[in-house]
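Lysosomal membrane ascorbate-dependent ferrireductase CYB561A3
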Amino acid sequence: SLARRCHHRSTAMLDVPFLPFCAFLGTLGLLCVAMVGTWCQHWRGGFSLDGSSRTFNWHPVLMVTGLVVLYGAAALVYRIPNTWSGPKLPWKVLHGSLALGAFVLTVLGLAAVFCFHNSQGTPNMYSLHSWMGLGTVLLFSCQWAAGFGAFLLPWAPAWLRALYKPIHVFFGSTILMLSVASCASGINEKLFFSLKNGTTAYKLLPAEAVFANTLGLLILIFGVLVVAALARPSWKRPDSDSPDSRQ
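Tokens:
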């Protein structure tokens, strides 16, 4: 029928190949990292390890790089068509290694903000941003440990992997969106703290505010696109228990 043909045509128009999409997403992720680095270098005074605000600047850079961009890359490993055939173990190791790298950067980012707060006499863990961020990191820790135990260690039976897999996938997307929300709230909080005495107020939208707000929107777009890719049925690895259970 005409309606069915129109539906097929519209579906074909939306059928973006994975690899070009992945290249676009990678470019967007690198742009987010470059922009948060530029923000901290150009407007916030650069980087150091002396406990000053320049130590704090490592926090947004490491969090965006680890908890959003590298984590998003780890989440998309099993959407690469090359992973759909042959042994699955190398891809498991890559997925786990990327997630571990994201976790290491995240811990260093937490260390930077705690070091800054302690050296300045600022209380830790009082804002919604800090609660959300630490909760995300703790959930990420549990996710990585459970995934390592269920999918990489040889003791886990096939039925346990099958039972835990949808839980692992669900929390993977949840952690990414919590990471995006934490980054967006952190950017907003930093602008409120910084753009006041002796500077152009945040409400007057100076260049720094425009730049950082844009960064927040790009991080949000990156997260939404990763979750959309994870949810797309045609990009999911064909489910086959036999190779997995033999490893």
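The two ends are 47 Å apart (CA to CA).
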